[in-house]
Amino acid sequence: MKKFIMVISILVLAFFVIQARYPVIECSEGTVKPIFSPYNSEEIFDLIRNAKSEIKLEVYEFSSKSLAEALVEARQRGVDVKVILEPSVYQNNAIFNYLVNSGVDASWASKKFHNTHSKFAVFDDYMVLVGSMNWSENAVKNNREASVIIYSAGISSEFEKIFDMDFAG
User: CATH code at 152?
Assistant: First the structure.
């Protein structure tokens, strides 16, 4: 019984710590659009193609040449593109070098975390793509992946804060 009470106490405490650390944001100000690959992967390319000012991407695995090329094209039309990749994933090396050599501001994720397993991108300060999808050809063309696009400046700002902290190291 004492163990049960201790476990419940820890869970309640953890709940309040988590609630205090990250704000709960009402989504009444925006909309959420679910996307699933392989069927809706074109939505991701549209987000990149339609970006006007900035793209901030933090992703665990990035091996899709077509998505990398889309980011480089965005950079070439004046979009500020920043990317954070997980250094322990071997497949990221070629894309990292391609992005950097093409003028994209890319950096390796901080080693202060065991892994940076994030999979999100912020577009133009008001759209967030977040979900299970790595940026690999398999994820785009073959895997069942589930993500959402959130159209909300408030929620985007929370993701941007994390991205900016992670990008700074």
Answer: 3.30.870.10
Q: What is the torsional sign of CA 119, 152, 68, 144?
A: positive
Rounded to 5 degrees, φ, ψ at 59 are -145, 145
Residue 50 lies in a domain: yes
- 104 CB-near residues (< 8 Å, 6+ apart): 71, 72, 75, 81, 82, 83
Range of the domain at 92: 40-168
Q: In what order do the strands lie in the sheet with 119-123?
A: 31-37, 145-151, 127-131, 119-123, 54-59, 80-85, 105-108
Could you read off the pLDDT of 88-134 as tens digits, one per residue? 999 999 999 999 999 999 999 888 787 788 999 999 999 999 999 98
Q: Name the domain count of the chain.
A: 1
Q: Is 32 helix (H, G, I), strand (E, B) or coil?
A: strand
For the stretch 63-91, pLDDT in tens is 999 999 999 999 999 999 999 999 999 99
Taking the whole predicted model, whether its pTM rises above 0.85 is answered as no
Indicate the DSSP class of residue 154.
Answer: H
Residue closest to 37 by CA, chosen among 95, 119, 160: 119
